[in-house]
Amino acid sequence: MSTSTDHGQPDPEASTLALTRDGRPVSDRGDTVCVVGAGASGLTAIKNLKEHGFGVDCYERETGVGGAWNWRHDRSPVYASTHLISSRPFTQFPDFPMPDDWPDYPHHSRLLSYFERYADHFDLRGHIWFGTEVVRVEPVAGDRWDVTTRSTGGYGPERTSRYAAVVVANGHNWSPKLPRYEGLEEFRGEVMHASSYKDPAQLRGKRVLVVGAGNTGCDIAVEAAQQASRCWHSTRRGYWYAPKYVLGRPADQVNDALLALRVPLRVRQWLYHWTLRLTVGDLTRFGLPKPDHRVYETHPIANSQLVYYVGHGGIAPVPDVVRFHPYAVELSDGREIDPDLVVFATGYLPRFEFLDPKVLGDDAGEGRPKLWLNAFVPGRPTLAVAGLVQPDSGIFPLSHWQSVLFARLLRLRVTRPDRAAAFAARVSAKAGERYAGPVKDSSRHWFEVGHADYLRAVQRALHDLEEAR
Q: Maximum distance among all alpha carbons in the chain?
């Protein structure tokens, strides 16, 4: 099999030269697999492909591992106070536990050290080209892929290598989704997306409007309540604000215990609803809008402080923004407020700049690939997308099992190509399946999955692959 050198550069003796369709030279890497990105999903893909006997080359545009969790990276959405919102046992990789003496919800700096130790423990750095961005990924004959790279920032010549398979693990929380409002261009105040928010000092002494009720929006609103001279929090609808602890245990662990007992969804919704009513009370009493959905029908918002600061007057809940004026913002109830800083915590859209959207079944080019298990591409048995899920708990275990499944599928293509082809047909038939209960129809929930349902589906697929061997 093809190999990589200790510094992540292809071994010249393991590569052969070929030509692309337009005549450019290409280094043929044999049966080596390319991984795009060295964040959480990329690292576990390298590790699992290695363990299944594949050579691996990974391209990482930044200078270190960690992806979104490395806040030194210019695309990282992490801010100074970021902590996990899923608890440690449900977030760690299955084969590399976080230290027992870590808190239930570790700080982002601990997460980065965790990834660095993971990379060192499994000897992954030698497979990673740091400071190298992927420019194009193009399908070629034989289900192979030409991957064109260059130094990050566009310096130096482009280089094309041919791979047996590709894992796309460039993350989906780095390309800001910006709303469009009438008059926004004329607004004289400061406007930024939450991706540019790093430190509470950016809020100090200002009149801040936070738009968006996801976990990031709630965190920033809480920090604005402590640092800003005034804070408004605009949400389109009401939400359930879940505490991080229930009965003294992390909330996701309590929910998982109910899932393990096979408690029906409606019963779990009722239990959680009344837990919130008993601990927080009627949210409308605080001026927060009444949720227009049941518990579990939107992505969990784990924030124990938002209601506290609303109740203490530090955060003023306001409805949706209608339009901007030069020195004011008009709300849907007719009121006008006068912030001097607007923070759009309006989420992100996945972007695969190096890949034709149609290859992923995203014919409309809106960032919503049509995949099986949110990972496998119909008609493209050697292409996978890792980490394109938004679970109700930790994501790292899901990324781990995605890459295990892909590695075993690639191995089956070598040992039993007929069985692999049958499995690929199943991928095409099941593309677009959802692994979550009823959720709100919005871009925020495109990739929403229930972690238990999703993992069961992956385990069934792994069982089927074992049967096929």
A: 71
- To the question of domain 184-344 being in CATH 2.60.40.1230, the answer is no
- What long-range pairs does 182-188 form, CB within 8 A, spacing at least 24? 182/322, 182/323, 182/324, 183/323, 183/324, 183/325, 183/326, 184/324, 186/324, 186/325, 186/326, 187/324, 187/325, 187/326, 187/329, 187/342, 188/326, 188/327
Coil, strand or helix at 130: strand
Question: Which tokens go with 415?
Answer: 């040992």
* 333 Cβ contact list (under 8 Å, min separation 6): 318, 319
3-state secondary structure of 364: coil
* DSSP symbol at 96: B
pLDDT of residue 259: 87
Question: What is the predicted pLDDT for the residue at 280?
Answer: 80
Q: Tokens 């409309």 correspond to what residue?
A: 364
Annotation: CATH topology of 12-175+349-468: FAD/NAD(P)-binding domain (3.50.50)
Rounded Cα gap, residues 187 and 432, in angstroms: 41
- 347 closest CA partner among 76, 73, 69, 77: 77
Whole-prediction pTM value? 0.91
Residue 344, beta-bridge partner list: 193, 211
